[in-house]
């Protein structure tokens, strides 16, 4: 009986000790979880999303700055384009006004020769007894001037077109009339009324000509 009593008491003591240990463990676990919760709360607060209004405001400001930069670039490009147009207009005006300066300067020598030919004939030389000499001198001066003029023309790619016997070319010749002539080839130039000129293979002024046509018996 005594032994059974001692055993029963020992079991009771062990059970009570186990309850106290379980209670202590539960208490420790509860405190640990509460501590972890308190530690996690600030972390959760730190990970909270950024204020959307502030984010939108920053984005708007960035777009405003970008827009201002692009506007400045556009204004600069427009200003550069206007400068280019202004310079181009000035170049065109200069070309229109002064493009023939070199050509005109070359013709000054021709003008000088004409003046010298005119001044070479005195009133005395124009008298009947000297008229032949004066005419000869004038003719020589005119021939010299024409040669000088043709030389200037050639230097600029200007050449005379149209000569008696040449085949009629509507691109360089202007037919003023037609007439038959058995001694000449039909379709060729029979008379040259005004010399024509070409410039670098283009017609500058057509030659005015009379064209040979076939006699009636050959038509």
Automatic annotation (TrEMBL):
- Asked whether the UniProt record includes Mitochondrion among its keywords, one would answer yes
Q: Name the GO cellular-component terms.
A: PAM complex, Tim23 associated import motor
Per UniProt, the keywords (alphabetical) are:
Chaperone, Coiled coil, Mitochondrion
Top-rank lineage group of the source organism: Eukaryota
Per the UniProt entry, what are the Gene Ontology biological process annotations, in alphabetical order? protein folding; protein import into mitochondrial matrix
One Gene Ontology MF term: unfolded protein binding
Coiled coil residues, start to end: 53-80
- Work out whether the entry's keyword set contains Coiled coil: yes
Q: Cellular location of this protein?
A: Mitochondrion matrix
* Chain's role: Essential component of the PAM complex, a complex required for the translocation of transit peptide-containing proteins from the inner membrane into the mitochondrial matrix in an ATP-dependent manner.
Q: Say which family it is in.
A: Belongs to the GrpE family.
What is the name attached to this protein's record? Answer: GrpE protein homolog
Originating species: Saprolegnia diclina (strain VS20)
């Amino acid at each position: 009986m005594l032994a059974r009593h001692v055993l029963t008491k020992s079991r009771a003591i062990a059970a009570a000790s186990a309850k106290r240990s379980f209670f202590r463990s539960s208490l420790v676990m509860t405190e640990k979880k509460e501590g972890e919760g308190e530690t996690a709360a600030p972390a959760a607060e730190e990970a909270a999303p950024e204020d959307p209004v502030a984010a939108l405001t920053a984005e708007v400001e960035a777009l405003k700055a970008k827009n201002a930069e692009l506007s400045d670039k556009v204004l600069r490009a427009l200003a550069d384009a206007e400068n280019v147009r202004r310079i181009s207009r000035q170049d065109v005006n200069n070309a229109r006004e002064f493009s023939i300066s070199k050509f005109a300067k070359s013709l000054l020598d021709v003008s000088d020769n004409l003046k010298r030919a005119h001044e070479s004939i005195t009133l005395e030389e124009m008298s009947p007894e000297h008229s032949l000499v004066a005419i000869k001198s004038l003719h020589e001066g005119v021939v010299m001037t024409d040669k000088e003029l043709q030389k200037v023309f050639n230097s600029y790619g200007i050449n005379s077109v149209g000569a008696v016997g040449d085949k009629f070319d509507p691109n360089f010749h202007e037919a003023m009339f037609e007439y038959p002539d058995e001694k000449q080839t039909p379709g060729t130039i029979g008379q040259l009324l005004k010399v024509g000129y070409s410039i670098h293979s283009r017609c500058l002024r057509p030659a005015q000509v009379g064209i040979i046509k076939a006699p009636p018996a050959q038509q």
